[in-house]
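Supplementary Text 2. Reproducibility record for the structural model of the 171-residue chain.

All settings were left at their defaults, and a single model was retained for analysis rather than an ensemble. We include the record here because the model underlies the residue-level annotations in Supplementary Table 4.
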Amino acid sequence: MIGLEAKLSHLEAGTAAPGFELKTYEGQRIKLSELLQRGPVVVTFFKISCPVCQFTFPFLQRLHKRIGVNHASLIAISQDDARDTRDFCQEFGADFPVLLDDSAYSVSNSYGITNVPTVFLIAPDGAIKVECMGFDKAGLEKIATQVTATAHLSAAPLFRPDEIVPAYKPG
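Retained model, structure tokens:
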């Protein structure tokens, strides 16, 4: 039974992140190892039909704007086709790179994804530093804090005090 449990959970903090090379919905190839040379990488797995993913994307866009592209990276990995993914990104205003997992979900499976969204912060050495599943306000704030500290950016809360944001929404 232990083997089955291991197959049904995503990778945890302290684990080495599996490498990958995927294409964006526009056809550009992106390799995790190349992104890690610039700094930490936030990786989010999602499906366009997932309401929790839809809820999470504006906060990911906010984090992307904060960290920029010079000191850290934020990417998302879609489990949908290129056209639907492009439409989703346009609807939710995502201007960070969005990659397409293949139809066998090889990258999603290598990360043990069972629910979406699942978000990982991967350090430049390739180790997973933070992981959270579903919409996890504290987890996203922890990722934002660690990325800004690692990238030597000024810290600011990811969530505004005037926003009513739930602590958690399961994915």
